[in-house]
Design a protein that fits this description.
The protein has one domain: Rossmann fold (3-Layer(aba) Sandwich), CATH 3.40.50.2300. Helix content is 36%, strand content 19%. It has four helices and five strands. The chain has a five-stranded parallel sheet with strand order 2-1-3-4-5. Strand 3, helix 3 and strand 4 form a beta-alpha-beta unit. Helix 2 packs parallel to helix 3. It is globular and about 30 Å long. The chain starts with a strand and ends in a 6-residue tail after the last helix. The relative contact order is 0.18.
Amino acid sequence: MARLLVVDDEENIRELYKVELEDDGHQVMTAEDGEDALRLLGEQTFDLITLDMRMPKMDGVELLGKIRERNLRIPIVVCSAYPGYKQDFHVWGAEAYIVKSSNLTELKETILQLLPGQNK
């Protein structure tokens, strides 16, 4: 069972991801913004992070940078409704970029590919 952190300011997205990913056997924690995510990262370890880009207080680009500054080698999947972020070189520090969809197949497949010990 992998420990995942879902970071998104939209409660319905956090809950959808949590339910779906827990149904797949993962343990899921959620954070509503970058500050909350950094607090959780300081208290616990995670195997993978899903990260929204547009959030209040601290956007996903800033959070991604802070995670990498801490030298955390956690795989990060950017999940954004805005495909334009994919061209932003600041986002290239993430292992994957997915445009949000109500169909979570691509997200789930990407997570399985990036989790330690999984076949790629």
